[in-house]
Here is the input.
Amino acid sequence: MLQKLRREFVVITMALVGLVLVVALGSTLVSSYMNQSSIVYSALTHGLKEDIDFTPRFGDQGDGDEPHGPNWLTLSADVSTDGTIIAKSSYYIDPDVLTQIIAEVLSSSEDSGHDANLHLSWMRAQNETGWRISIVDTQSVDSSLARQTMTDVVIVLVAMAVLFAIVWVISAWIMKPIQKSWDSQRRFVSDASHELKTPLAVILANTQILLEDPNVPPDTRTWVESTNDEASHMKALVEDLLTLARTDEAQADGAKRVLALEDIDFSELVDECAIEFDGVAFERGCSIESKIEPNIRLQADRTQMARAVRTLIDNATKYATKGTAVDVRLKKTDKHVVLTVHNASAPMDPEDLEHIFDRFYRSDKARSREETGGFGLGLAICKGIIDAHGGTIAATSTAEEGTTFTVTL
Here is the structure.
């Protein structure tokens, strides 16, 4: 769980910083493009307004207050409507390129454009002979923007790589006190549960002896039975806490070291669990229908996985609407094994659904422990087992479709 939290921290931090970096560099790239486009536009308009022999020079500010800008390679040409060149400025341009760009200009429905292949921008305006066409060589502009784009991409990639290394180190430092606290909590739950097992065993043994004694007065027997029931509940709670401690350890320290992994027939296991709850479902006023693909095998802890499946089926039969069927399905996809347990029941509140796998959380607060027989740990244990095996579990609940738990392994 802590490793997942660390990964999420790294991903979120890198996403936010990366977004800021991309926006900043993207803004400079857009600014450069707009600036270069403005200069090209200025050169094109001057080519339309000036005499055909106009040739800009370095530092030339023109006759008026408006500057000509840098010394762009600009060519102006007067062209008839049929494409014949009447006159052109002195800048040399390859005749074939000139013929191609003029044909493109005359066939266009726009009065300006850019040919990315020839690296030429153009603008046209009608005159007494047909068209005045202004052409600007944008090779330097296109190359400059391409170089800036490549530079920005390299900067982003290098910066993200450096950022990842820094954030990964920082995240480890940040997680140290959390890891220490988590380990302490896990050890406390495990140690306390182990320490409680012995006195609970003594209490249960003593109450059983008293209950078997015929000389115990009826009033006293009532108190002894109550003590025995509560001790039994506490024993179940301690066993659940020990299971949670083991699943936490499996997630933190590696499943192979904690879980008894073996090759199991998961299809057979799910089928056995479904048959086991047939009688329970009947007593609760529902039934179980299963559709299980045969011969699906997994590397898993059979005991723990059986407990997870039983918890899901038990939970489904417990809350199923009377007269309906609990649907248990198991199938294999290309890469995963998917187990679904569905029942027709009243929909869970979205807020309850969000916390359904939290420890000691009970979605139906109106029910007592005696009615449901649990402590709010069943689904938390189930999730812990699935997580320890590297899988995922999710729940959906609607009035139309009922409640479905989906396990993906």
Q: What stands out?
A: Residues 198 and 235 are 10 Å apart (CA to CA). Residues 139-212 form the longest helix (74 residues). Confidence is low (pLDDT under 50) at residues 57-70, 366-372. The two ends are 17 Å apart (CA to CA).
